[in-house]
## 1
Amino acid sequence: MSFAPLQIGKYTIPVPVVQGGMGVGISWDQLAGTVSKEGGLGVISSVGTGNYGNKAYSDKLVANRPLEAENFYSKKGLVAIFENARKICGDAPLACNILYAINDYGRVVRDACEAGADIIITGAGLPTNMPEFTADFPDVALVPIVSSPKALSIICKRWQKRYNRLPDAVVLEGPKSGGHQGFTYEQCAMDEYQLENLVKPVVEEAALWGGIPVIAAGGIWDKNDIDEMMALGARGVQMGTRFIGTFECDAHQNFKQVLLDAREKDITLMKSPVGYPARGVRTNLHGLIDTRTGPAIKCISNCVAPCNRGVEAKEVGFCIADRLSDAYFGDLELGLFFSGSNGYRIDKIISVKELMEKLTQGE
């Protein structure tokens, strides 16, 4: 099966593969720029941009961490990342992933538009007011992430009533993705919530709103998976974890090695200060969390609203901003290494170009 291009608003993605946004610092300029150059949609993560350039783009540091949301989500860092990605991909469409649960959401959306994002992708909550922050940027396409037809219906009704617009596409993320899930622990294991059983109902809901393109995500690994999703009615797929296994991925070599060494049983769900189950590789950090012997939890970055300034971090036993930043810097002792359920299948590092060829032509 050959793939038709993916249309998101005014932007045409020649290869309908969206590279998932991965923070802190896993999908920044090198990865996103190269994916867009190779015909997919590169997605820059807005998370932790104050750490970019070894924190050169954070105005204030405490204990070598960006202070407060304004520095953790650094506009200067985000602008620099987009500028460097553009040097790689030119005028090809480039997206930014911005979690709805973060502090300063509206400001970061505007920052991304000003930095040159063509498309904004938002998950980790229902972004019912997303269009409010892009009113001055009518060409920017908006793509919410949902986990059910009901979620898409709620977003469409709110957007149409309040802003007289609809999503330009929607990402449907199943429970096998890396990082935070839009499901409970129990739902992650239940058949009815698996991606293959959600695509048709969401495509049917999208059809009621003028045929919004549905992008399937969570556990997509190879061309066979893409073919299956397209046959179910998806117009594209989003893939995060497999792109970690590329030379161009911005992740530290130690992060890539964690996945190269991972076994299937090592990839597990865990509690998160964000309030959703999160999937990652079980490493040294998990033992520290289990025994409550990890680093002292001091909320410096104030990164996500649900954490309530460190209250939830203390409840679950770790600060997510600090531990994801540690993973970005390659700290094997304290880093939190997010991965989708298939991360253990990465067995060698290849180029983005070779990966895109595999995804479009088969192994």
## 2
Amino acid sequence: MSDALEAIPLTGLRAKIGQRMLYSVTHKPHVTLHAELDATALLDWQRRRAPQVLAETGHKLTLTALLVQLVGVALRRYPRINGRVENDRVQLHRMVNVGVAVALDEGLAVPVVRDAERKSLAEIAAELGLRVAEARAGKLKPRDVLDATFTVSNLGPYGVTHFTPIVNPPEIAILGVGCVTPRPRRSGDRWIEVPMLNLDLSFDHAAIDGAQAARFLQVLSLLFRNPESAAGTAAENSEPPNE
């Protein structure tokens, strides 16, 4: 008699995820860059903005929502990593559509925040809250998961520090987000604890090189130090062009 607790068939969504990820790791030369960015200003910005966002939308301002805005602005400022590999060409996009991996009971879904660099924190928080609820209820529409140009996968809430995310084809890159970890840093003549956010950027080395991926992380690091600037950029991007 088998001592197996349960036999879970690799069919349906589970099979599709497996096929897609297997294709990615066998057809794309993966490289992952690991970084730790000072999250002091980012967490302070979240604390200050959270009450207003909750009052405006009824949704919490999560770290993921903050990261979607910052990633969107970073992709606009450094577009070399914002695109897809199609027909043996790297197609860079003007649109910045950030996919967000959402864990389900079996598998995952990746709803897309379109024009992420143009949206306010309140808009992103509300949209993410709605899409996550729809994903877990199985109510996402096909359009909700199409046309991503970059993906964010946050495993920090599960206590994960670092991981190696797999690029979601045909995208060029994916950002894995770990938990915030206190690290000792020297400040003058004393030591202080600094909250560091663990990031893992996997990319298709056929589409971009390591230095290009590293530059994107540098742009993101600058936004971490001054997240208000990302909010200002989003407001500027949302304004219609002058005629």
## 3
Amino acid sequence: MMRGPGRRRNDPGQIGAGSEANEIGFQITSSSADAWGMDRPLGTDDFTQLSRLVDAAVATTDGDGRITTWSPGAVRLLGWSTDEAVGRALRDLVPCFDTDADTDGVRTFRSDLVRRDGGRVRCEVRSTPRSGAAGDLVVVTEIDAEDALRAAVLEGETRYRSVFESMSEGVVVQSQGGAIVSCNPAAERILGLTRDQLEGRTSIDPRWRAVHADGSPYPGETHPAMVTLATGRSQYGVTMGVHTPDGRLRWIAVNSVPVGAGRGPPAAVVATFLDVTEARMQAEVVRDTVRRLNLLLDATSDGYWDRDLVADRTYLSPLAVRILEMDESNVESNTAFTTKLHPDDLPALREAVAGCLAGQRERIDVEARFRRRDAGWRWVHVRGKVAERDAQGRPVRLAGAVSDIDERQRLRGDLEAALATNVGLVARLETALGKALSGYLPVCAWCKAVRETDGEWIPLDRYVERHSEALVTHGMCPRCYEREIGEPPD
């Protein structure tokens, strides 16, 4: 609250109209002064100094209830300056009293007062008749701060307790010696122990049978809370396994923070821990699944790809990176693929992807050429399908496999070329066979001449040459050679 401007002693505006002590009614009789050990009566200047020392609002009124004095505390508390307050009816700034005075003649009540700026402040108002003059002496003190502080403390404690009790994370407070002095219900649930069983137990207790993530023993003096107590340094995200009384192994992620750490060791430590047993098991299942998938794909010589359509990002397995000769396993944009595709094969792949996304075809199945680093081309077989859709049924992820079929395509080309050659040979053979001899031939039993359809008898060799593409050559068989020459051939 801003303080009002200071005023000099005996300033009429500070004390009010008329500054004589007798007019104010605060002069104390000599007998009273003597009784209190005072050297002189309390006068105007004394009241001025006293009102400056009191943080509360102090005011006096005349017989008509109008303000005659207005202290600096009143300016600070209610915002009305002395010039604005003096002369106004007190009821305009402070509510009238409806309560009866006590035996000392003091009336007290609490009320919300309206400040000059429109704000409201909860106050306690005390009033007593002035001595030796008409009017009252009024003291107004703020109680908002006290009530608000008390309410804030209560609310904070309630909120802390509700959060402490409802947290899914376990919380334990350990003293400087490492003993647990407090815990929440989640700690009881995760550790399988009641509050009574936990309180007093230390980290070095062998019943924890704590282990590291790799299964090796986790000595109690190296637990996060004990490290924090020894060093004063916080520990975060430490994974450890503890055995519950029923023999089960619980995996927890632990944070520990020192309490009251100064130059010396911490007075205590607060450790929070989250049960990550199920998450660890699921992660292990995922790792095993990925491991088996990689083994399967490596065995089939296929690389796999996974494209996030929303983020426009593609993941390639290591084998897919090698097959496509890409520079990285995470490709930010689809342009990285299209620039490596053979221009003649790009339309087919785009059509297959678009049809799959539109639901017109179930799968992507395209053979295409990808540019090699040596400027050549590699044939690959790209397969895939929509792997995930959003709540509205729109595709958000494609996944599939890619195979190196370059050698197969080369062999296919060789086979097709050989087949084309064989087709020509078969055609020529069919032509030759069409001219081949067929049916019965009339051959003379003595001279072996063959009769033509017109009745002419011609030598056998001439008949063969006339009716086929074969050429006849002449020689002598061993038997004839021996009969005619008289000796067997060499």
